[in-house]
Design a protein that fits this description.
The protein is an alpha/beta fold. The chain has a single domain, classed as Lambda Exonuclease, Chain A (Alpha-Beta Complex), CATH 3.90.320.10. Helices cover 36% and strands 25% of the residues. It contains 9 helices and 11 strands. The chain has helices spanning 27-34, 44-63, 104-112, 118-130, 149-152, 157-164, 196-211, 237-240, 247-259, and strands at residues 3-6, 12-14, 17-20, 68-76, 81-90, 95-101, 135-142, 171-179, 184-187, 190-195, 220-221. The strands form 2 sheets. Strands 1, 4, 5, 6, 7, 8, 9 and 10 form an 8-stranded mixed β-sheet that branches. A hairpin with a 4-residue loop joins β8 (171-179) and β9 (184-187). The longest helix has 20 residues, at 44-63. The mean pLDDT is 89.
């Protein structure tokens, strides 16, 4: 079985370092996942956030039945590593990536300032390059009026399910992502500091990282203005604070941590 880089592990590789704003793009985390090992998510609030995201995707599909749902993206990076992911929706013109919003900070950034999160742009950009498509739509659905992130922890399961029975987004925001003939990405017509070459270089670097026997370096922050860094909500951040002599030592430390939770 080949090792895998997944679509959700989107990041860029510049000046010898991986840059990302979420733990999913962390080289240590995507190397763990490449070996079919991923710490199970058990935190109730996080599970609720995932369900809200899935319900947003379902709602969008129901309101746009002409779209093709969950198109698989798969190709070989090299003889040992493959890329695999799923685009939420697609049609003849666009690829669609959907993101639910429950955080007040994200709502201000996306809906008030009308600026997409760079990490989300990067994930859609990854699929666009993989499928050789030059147009995509990044679509946010806000649930901050009904299921704000801060209230999810105290919301009991029965009440959460009751709200979910009739759940739909309070508002939506759409960003058009395009690639120019010269390989530069733009958002709503404004050029971004992102090129097709950045995506390809990350795939090549990620393949080398997961095949190497060393513990990967910690990631750098992708967007310096982002409210949170890649380690902010990672349950392994205390483990990563220590030094390790080899990947095996790190890997078994993580496995023991997960088994003892």
């Amino acid at each position: 079985m080949k090792l895998q880089i997944r679509g959700g592990n989107a990041a860029i590789y510049r000046n010898g370092e991986v840059r990302t704003d979420t733990s999913s793009g962390c080289p240590r985390m995507f190397k763990l996942r490449s070996y079919q090992f991923q710490p199970a998510i058990t935190e109730p609030r996080t599970l609720k956030v995932f369900k809200i995201g899935q319900m947003f995707e379902d709602w969008y599909g129901d309101t746009n039945p002409q779209l093709e749902k969950e198109r698989e993206v798969r190709f070989d990076i090299n003889e040992d590593v493959e890329f695999i992911g799923h685009i939420d929706y697609s049609d003849e013109d666009f690829l669609y990536e959907l993101k639910s919003v429950t955080s007040k900070n994200t709502f201000r950034e996306v809906f008030k300032k009308q600026k997409p999160k760079m990490q989300n742009v990067l994930q859609l950009a990854t699929y666009m390059v993989a499928l050789e498509r030059d147009k995509g739509k990044l679509i946010y659905g806000s649930f901050t009026n009904t299921l704000q992130y801060d209230m999810l922890e105290e919301l009991d399961d029965d009440k959460f399910e009751e709200i979910c029975d009739t759940l739909k987004p309070d508002a939506t925001m759409e960003f058009n992502i395009t690639i120019s003939d010269s390989g530069i990405f733009s958002c709503n017509g404004q050029e971004l500091d992102l090129q097709v070459a950045d995506i390809v270089e990350f795939w090549e670097a990620a393949a080398e990282i997961i095949c190497d026997e060393e513990v990967p370096a910690k990631p750098a922050q992708l967007d310096p203005k982002s409210y949170f860094g890649p380690c902010s909500f990672c349950e392994l951040k205390n483990i990563c604070a220590n030094e390790y002599d080899s990947w095996d030592q790190f890997y078994h430390t993580v496995k023991n941590f997960v088994a003892c939770r």
